[in-house]
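Write out this protein's structure.
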Amino acid sequence: MTVSDEQFDPEVTDGPDVGAEPSGFDEAVAPGEVTDMLPADLQPALADQEDYLFPNNNRRRVPGYLYLLTALALVVLYLVRGPGVLVNGGLLAGAAVLAVVGAYSVVSGWNLDIDERDALVAASRAVGFPIGHAAAQMGWRGFLSRPTWRILLYSADEPPTKRGLVLVDGVDGSIVDTYVEDNPEDWSDIDL
């Protein structure tokens, strides 16, 4: 494959054409300008926060039920056909593994009743000061993977004088643990 003179520009050695409008973006990029921005459908300010729903943890139950159903089918197949060349004890061993994994998936499929907003309200009650900036992250704790919200928060004053980490149970909203301290960050050099 050869490149014609019309397609090749010796001034541009590699990289995308900076003068062309990237697909999925609303604004054209000026020649020589390097930008880094998200497409309009991924802009956080334009997202409808009311329609967003964090995925429920109980979705783990679906594959668990499928594993249990498959384990039952393997046991029935063994009982109907009996031991032989293609149907043997390996099917029972596979059924046992599937049953254990399926039971674990069903048991660990907790229903997430507390969303991130409820967790933030519970965290604000636990720390005892007005909250400014905060971030919520879903995590799991224990052998049965109980969902737990990790709330990192700062006090509402500028600059924040306190910060804290609060673990909120995602099933019943109880406070698992709280850690609050004076904010050790020095922001005196930053002009606010």
